[in-house]
Amino acid sequence: MAHIPRNVHLTRPAGVGIDQTRARAGSLLEQGSAFERLEGVALAAGTAAPSAADRDAVRVDVVVIGAGQAGLSVGRQLASRGIDFVILESQARVGDSWRRRWDSLRLFTPARYDGLDGMRFPAPPYHFPTKDEMANFLETYAARFHLPVRTGVRVDAVTRGQLEGYVIDAGAVRYVARHVVIAAASYQQPRIPAFAAELDATILQLHASSYRNPAQLRPGAVLLVGAGNSGAEIALDLSRTHDVWLSGRHPGHLPVAHDGAFACRVVVPIVFRLVFHRLLSMDTPMGRKARPRFTEHSGPLIRVKPCDLDRAGVHRVPRLAGIRDGQPLLEDGRCQEVANVVWCTGFLPGLEWIRLPIFDGSGRPKQYRGMVPGEPGLYFTGLAFQHSASSAMIHGVGRDARRVVEAIVQRLQATSVSARA
Q1: For residue 176, which of 344, 30, 15, 63 has the smallest C-alpha distance?
Q2: Are 251 and 232 within 8 A, CB to CB?
Q3: CA-to-CA distance for 213 and 198, rounded, in angstroms?
Q4: Alpha-carbon distance 222 to 243, whole Å?
Q5: Which regions in the chain score pLDDT beneath 70?
Q6: Whole-number pLDDT of residue 3
Q7: Are residues 35 and 164 located together in one domain of the fold?
Q8: Does 359 fall in a domain?
Q9: What is the structure's pLDDT at 350?
Q10: DSSP string spanning 90-106?
């Protein structure tokens, strides 16, 4: 039986009668029984002997996979409740996923909205942090709250345990946990069209995830494929040194200056805290209708405006249709001769290492508010539009983390009650 922290216990709230308390306890008993049946926990004699790998496994109540803002938010909530857990991070340092992005990247939200539970971002409220400042903040956050992060640990597989919970294989180390929170970014594998292989070998190709600065590219024209936020921002970055062509449909944009005084004090709170955090959620018809736009397509441009691209001399052209004679072929039939192509075409989920039947037809995990149907003990945080448009944003991960940890606490309680019944 997993360790149940001393401060995880049932209470009878003030004003709640004994009958209601009994009903609540009965509900928890029922949840605990269902949870243990699904876990396959052997409480009776005659259980099959564990394998040698399982006997040597590291056992904890919760394994969190990923030490970005979502994973650290979950870790902070678990630590505050005294729950035994570990965070596994594939990068060498906390924050490296931010450090590896392009050099000129800045956050879309000012520092006022970039803190995590229990710690403000250490900068003036209307400063837009750089990617390195954000990386260092995450590293400091993990250290300040003494979160048990294991860096340089890449998870190879998550499977159901033979006897209990879940098995997490990470190199030579195996973890066994009652609960697993997937806080790794759900878009880990660059999406590049198959016809990219037909480009002439003299054309340098990069995915946006590998782009750092203009010095990586060859002299000559650059075609950026994908006109979302990444494409537009990289286009501006490259326009100082290269002739730039931006391919794709315009996804819309915020109609006001992103970093002006009016925007910081009025527009940003309305867009990020009201619209993205509350109105566009799975609780509202508007949010449910908007969700496919956020999960399947690029959202509106936040910082860059069409006039910014025009002033920088960026040429906007139709979508890429394929390759002709080794050169990019646009939808209007033109071939665009270039020396470089940067694919700003997004990512695939890249979650094949989760070897459980939890995915829909598009490869995305099926979940509601971070909980996976049919898998009590498996959770997600930080997914695009997990519950709202802000779910993958820094200011939105805390709310989803609290919901997931509340579910973990409730299920630990239910399992404890069931075992004593």
Answers
A1: 63
A2: no
A3: 25
A4: 6
A5: 1-53, 55, 185-187, 416-421
A6: 44
A7: yes
A8: yes
A9: 86
A10: SSSSTTHHHHTS-TT-B
Tell the burial category of 25 from Cβ atoms under 10 Å away from its Cβ (0-12, 13-18, 19+).
middle
In the predicted model, what is the mean pLDDT of the chain? 86
Name the one residue in this structure whose structure tokens are 């990289």. Answer: 234
Beta strands 347-348 and 189-190, pairing class: antiparallel
Alpha-carbon 294 to chain mean position: 13
Using DSSP, state whether 206 is helix, strand or coil: strand
User: Which amino acid would we find at residue 391?
Assistant: S
Q: Report in angstroms the alpha-carbon separations of 215 from 238, 264, 344.
A: 9, 33, 18
CA angle 293, 294, 295 (to 5 degrees): 100
Q: Record the pTM.
A: 0.84
Whether residue 337 is found in the same domain as residue 356 = no
What confidence tens digit (pLDDT) does each residue in 109-132 have?
A: 999 999 999 999 999 999 999 999
Q: Do residue 147 and residue 88 come from a single domain?
A: yes
Give residue 372's domain range.
26-40+52-188+349-420
What's 337's domain CATH number?
3.50.50.60
pLDDT digits over 165-220, tens only? 999 999 999 999 999 999 986 667 899 999 999 999 999 999 999 999 999 999 99
